[in-house]
Design a protein that fits this description.
The complex is a heterodimer of chains A (391) and B (70).
Chain A lengths: L15 H10 L4 E4 L2 H12 L7 E2 L2 H10 L14 E3 L1 H7 L6 E5 L5 E12 L2 H9 L7 H8 L3 E9 L15 H11 L4 E6 L5 H11 L4 E6 L11 H15 L5 E3 L11 H13 L4 E4 L14 H4 L6 H4 L2 E4 L3 E4 L4 E4 L10 E2 L3 H9 L11 H19 L1
Chain B lengths: L10 H11 L7 H16 L9 H13 L4
The chains are: A alpha/beta (391), B mainly alpha (70).
Chain lengths: 391, 70
């Protein structure tokens, strides 16, 4: 079994003794309220999905990650994992380094405790430029930075209570659960597929190419915070289930939900997504075109090239790079630029805008583009959406 | 008592490591050595699935069976 990043799968979920100790201290602790991303981050940290992180980054790790894509000890890590608060709140609450702080949701439920080891002011513009490669406020990652506090709190966390997810609880598998599954099934090589969209024929093609190489596939959709215009999680899950039922070998594919929030950080997020999947026990990770990108902020294959900045041993999980895939009428099969000699007028390609237009008009998507079952589910979603807008 | 100990290695190897880590992002040969050793020791350790108790194992197995994966 592949080792977790940094060598050890972290668990920051409180033991019974820790629960007792922290619950006794809670009434005296100051509180910080987490936003949705931070809530999903504490769950990812606590379950080991973000190993070797044991909490929110201190200034040394944060600056090293922003500048070099590595933790201060040199281990590759490309996305800052931080807890923001306003300096006014910190001053008003009297929070200092060395204090313990209760981390709560906006309804007042305490989910974790933070042992504050560092408090530092943030240069948001610098973070945006180094991590997101832009300061354009239209980028959702930059917009997020703009609305969060000007100061970061670093330190180890202990999770006292898991967030209760209203949906898809069964499909939420922690790293130790996926690792157990892989061991039980005798799968030595597992490719992970990250997605935040319905799976169309092009994605299916990449997955099946990967399945030719490895023992099994983990379809691992992100169900944390995404963009407002992404397809809703329940619709996507229905699409995934329909596809798995009809077109995949049942004994070689599993699906589980990743509770991470999207950062839309393109290439840097591709490395982050790979490392996280390594923590779930996967040995390979599919990286397609414009992975975790948004708008036109990143080059089509920047998310491939960034892996050249690291030694294979350092990352540990093997990236599987794929070109843009499509159905080719001349080839009469799925192909990519690497394998198809024909002109683009033979290729079936639909932009996101065109897909939305067709579905909103109640039209089916061509079977060369998506499976009929997926088209039907999406048509239903868009017609419901149109109906609710009209009313 | 410090939670760190010193280990001696030949100076030429240390100098070579300084050259190897170059711009890699490792801030010192010590960090690089710790990374490599941790990785090596990790690969030699017996496989444990996150130190699960018997009750946890039963619960995980049931969850995976319900999903049709086991």
């Amino acid at each position: 079994m592949i080792k977790a990043h940094g060598g050890r799968l972290i668990s920051r979920i409180a033991t019974e003794a820790e629960q007792e100790r922290w619950r006794a201290e809670l009434p005296a602790l100051k509180h910080v309220t987490l936003n949705r991303r931070e809530l999903s981050d504490i769950e990812m940290i606590a379950t080991g999905a973000m190993s070797p992180l044991e909490g929110f980054m201190d200034q040394r790790d944060y600056e090293h990650v922003c500048e070099h894509g590595r933790l201060a000890n040199g281990i590759p890590w490309t996305i800052p994992i931080t807890l923001a608060a306003s300096s006014e709140l910190i001053a008003a609450e009297g929070i200092q380094s060395g204090h313990n702080v209760a981390l709560q949701s906006d309804d007042g439920t305490v989910y974790a405790v933070l042992e504050v080891s560092d408090i530092y002011k943030v240069d948001k513009e610098r973070e945006a430029l180094t991590v997101l490669k832009t300061t354009d406020t239209a980028h959702p990652g930059v917009a997020y930075l703009q609305k969060t506090g000007d100061t970061y709190l670093g330190g180890r966390i202990t999770m006292l209570q898991r967030p209760v997810h209203a949906e898809f609880e069964d499909f939420r598998l922690d790293p130790r659960e996926t690792r157990f599954l892989f061991k039980e099934k005798g799968w030595d090589t597992i490719a992970a597929f990250q997605t935040r969209n319905p799976i169309h024929r092009a994605h299916e093609y990449l997955q099946k190419c990967a399945l030719e190489l490895v023992d099994a596939m983990l379809i691992h959709p992100i169900m944390g915070e995404t963009k407002f215009d992404d397809i809703p999680a329940d619709v996507r899950l229905e699409c995934y289930n329909a596809l798995l039922k009809g077109y995949y070998p049942a004994g070689r594919v599993a699906m589980s939900i990743l509770p991470a929030a999207m950062r839309y950080a393109g290439p840097r997020e591709a490395v982050f997504h790979a490392i996280v999947r390594k923590n779930y026990g996967c040995t390979h990770f599919i990286v397609g075109r414009d992975h975790a990108g948004v708008g036109g902020y990143y080059g089509t294959y920047d998310a491939h090239r960034i892996f050249e900045e690291f030694e294979a041993l350092e990352i540990g999980i093997t990236p599987l790079f794929f070109d843009h895939a499509f159905f080719c009428h001349s080839c009469q099969n799925m192909a990519s630029q690497k394998t198809c000699p024909h002109d683009s007028d033979q290729h079936v390609f639909l932009s996101g805008t065109r897909i939305r237009e067709m579905l909103s008009r109640g039209e089916s998507l061509p079977p060369e583009f998506t499976r009929p079952e997926i088209s039907e589910i999406l048509q239903r979603h868009y017609s419901n959406e149109s109906a609710s807008v009209a009313s | 008592m410090s939670d760190r100990v010193s280990i001696k290695i030949p100076r030429p190897l240390y100098v070579r490591l300084q050259q190897v880590i170059g711009d890699s992002g490792f801030s010192s040969p010590t960090d690089f050595i710790v990374f490599v050793l941790r990785d090596l020791v990790g690969s030699l350790e017996p496989e444990k699935v996150g130190e699960l108790s018997d009750d946890e194992l039963v619960a995980i197995r049931k969850k995976l069976e319900n999903l049709g994966y086991l």
